[in-house]
Design a protein that fits this description.
alpha+beta; Thrombin, subunit H; 6 strands
């Protein structure tokens, strides 16, 4: 299909969730702008190097425990849409259900 980004294999859902990315002693605060089963975009003014591996902790509505996922920085965006494109390195068993539930909640909430 013309105009389709071949690198994206998962549907992205627009969200607005507070999160922290931690890597090598650096803590980056931001807001998750979109989410898929394979990654997310974290709006933040902080910068990390491409390929950096870290831990992303996403605040889940109604939960005292954040969603924790290992992720690699795969894109750095500057300008108005500044932030980090993160690809999950592996979604463990304990994270699969909360991630799926979160995506279903936001997909349902944004449906017309």
């Amino acid at each position: 299909m013309p105009g389709v980004n071949d690198r994206r294999i998962s549907e992205r859902i627009a969200v607005a969730l507070r999160a922290q990315y931690r890597s090598h002693g650096v803590v980056v605060d931001g807001v998750v702008a979109d989410l898929s089963r394979t990654g997310m975009f974290l709006r933040t003014d902080a910068a990390e190097a491409l390929g950096t591996r870290g831990l992303i902790e996403v605040d889940l509505p109604g939960s005292s425990e954040p969603l924790r996922l290992d992720a690699d920085v795969v894109r750095i965006a500057d300008g108005e849409g500044r932030g980090l494109g993160l690809r999950f390195s592996e979604v463990g068993v304990q994270a699969r259900r909360p991630l799926a539930n979160l995506m279903m909640h936001w997909a349902h909430a944004s449906a017309p």
